[in-house]
Amino acid sequence: MHKTGFELTGAQKMDMFVNSNVSFAGMELIHSVVIAQRIESWWGFLRKECVEFWLSLFDQIKAEGNFDGGPLGKNLVLFCFLGMIQDELDLVAEVWDSHVIRPSRNLIVPNGIPNIMFSVPELCDSENYMCRIDEEEF
Fold first, then answer.
1. What gap in Å lies between CA 107 and CA 94, rounded to an integer?
2. What is the pTM for the complete model shown?
3. What is the DSSP string of the chain?
4. pLDDT tens-digit series, residues 33-76
5. Distance between CA atoms of 3 and 1, rounded to whole angstroms?
6. How far is residue 76's CA from residue 102's CA, in Å, rounded to a whole number?
7. Which residues pair with 62 in a beta bridge?
8. Could you tell me the CA-to-CA distances from 57 to 26, 64, 67 in Å, in that order?
């Protein structure tokens, strides 16, 4: 798969999976640069709100010689920090999903609060595009 520099390979695979299982009849695709900008915006928000602290902490632990990257060290880091990191990621996701997406001149781009747009798309003049998938296929 070709990597453009903006999208992540995992995100591209997920997009291909979703688009192969969902019919978007009548919807136009947003230009890939706009999508890339939105992805970059999300990663910037995530890094600023959560990830930067953990990256700095783990860099410091490594610089002080307290982490060698071996299996035992990795498992200890997971045991000690995974719960806290997950709690923080959950909080960041909650904040992100509760923020307001401003209306755009591009009429295709949705606006509103992501949680509401997902839960009750009718309130945002949209449709429910969810579809069931097999867990094995995912």
1. 26
2. 0.60
3. ----SSS-HHHHHHHHHHHHH---TTPPPPPHHHHHHHHHHHHHHHIIIIIHHHHHHHHHHHHTT-----HHHHHHHHHHHHHHHHHHHHHHHHHHHHSPBPP-SSTTS--B-HHHHHH-GGGGT---------TTT-
4. 666 777 888 888 889 988 999 999 999 999 999 999 899 999 99
5. 6
6. 43
7. none
8. 48, 11, 11
Give the phi and the psi of residue 120 in degrees, each rounded to 5.
-135, 70
Tens-place pLDDT, residues 106-128: 777 778 888 888 888 888 777 88
Query: How far apart are the C-alpha atoms of 119 and 114, rounded to whole Å?
Result: 8
Please, are residues 6 and 36 in contact by the beta-carbon 8 Å criterion?
Answer: yes
CB within 8 A of 36, min separation 6: which ones? 4, 6, 7
Residue type, 89: L
Q: Write down how long the chain is.
A: 138
